[in-house]
Write a structure and sequence with these properties.
The chain is an all-alpha fold and 150 residues long. It is built from 5 helices and no strands. The longest helix has 59 residues.
Length: 150
C-alpha cells in the first residue's frame, strides 16, 4: 500500500526501487567491493610509504655513524706517523724482525706430529725399494694403485 502523503514523483521512484530491489542489492554489493579494493590499495600504499620512511631513517643513521667514524677516528689514524706501519699490516705485509706465530692446542700439535711421522715413514718405505728401470717404475706404480683401490 502506498503512502497517500507522497506525491506522484516520489511514489514512482519508490515503486521503481521496490520493483527492482535485486538490482539495487547487487549494485550496492558491487559498489562495496569497489570501495574495498580502493581501501586495500590505499592501505598498501600507506604501508609502503611507512616502510620507505623507515629505510631512509636507517640510511641516515648509517651515514651519520660512518661520517662520525671518519671524522673522529679514521682521519687521525691516517694522519699519524704510524699510518704506513698500520696499513702495511692491514695488507698482510711483514716488516723486518717480525715473524708469524701460530697458536695450537696440544691435541693439534700431537695430531700434526703423527701425520708428519706417517708421511715420512711412507716416503722412506717408498724409497727403500731401488727402482732402476722405467718398466720397474711403472710396475710399482700400478701395483700401489691396485693395492690402494682394494
Amino acid at each position: 500500500m502506498l503512502n497517500p502523503f507522497l506525491n506522484k514523483k516520489k511514489q514512482s521512484r519508490y515503486e521503481i526501487i521496490k520493483r527492482h530491489d535485486t538490482f539495487v542489492k547487487y549494485g550496492i554489493l558491487v559498489i562495496n567491493v569497489l570501495f574495498m579494493i580502493v581501501a586495500v590499495r590505499a592501505f598498501i600504499n600507506y604501508s609502503y610509504i611507512n616502510e620507505n620512511i623507515d629505510k631512509e631513517y636507517q640510511n641516515i643513521a648509517y651515514i651519520i655513524q660512518r661520517n662520525a667514524y671518519v671524522e673522529n677516528f679514521h682521519r687521525s689514524y691516517l694522519q699519524s706517523e704510524y699510518a704506513a706501519y698500520f696499513l702495511g699490516h692491514e695488507n698482510n705485509r711483514m716488516y723486518d724482525n717480525e715473524i708469524l706465530v701460530r697458536i695450537q692446542t696440544k691435541e693439534e700439535a700431537e695430531n700434526q706430529e703423527t701425520q708428519t711421522e706417517a708421511r715420512t715413514n711412507a716416503w722412506i718405505n717408498d724409497n727403500q725399494a731401488q727402482i732402476l728401470t722405467p718398466s720397474q717404475q711403472w710396475n710399482t706404480f700400478f701395483t700401489k694403485k691396485r693395492e690402494s683401490v682394494r
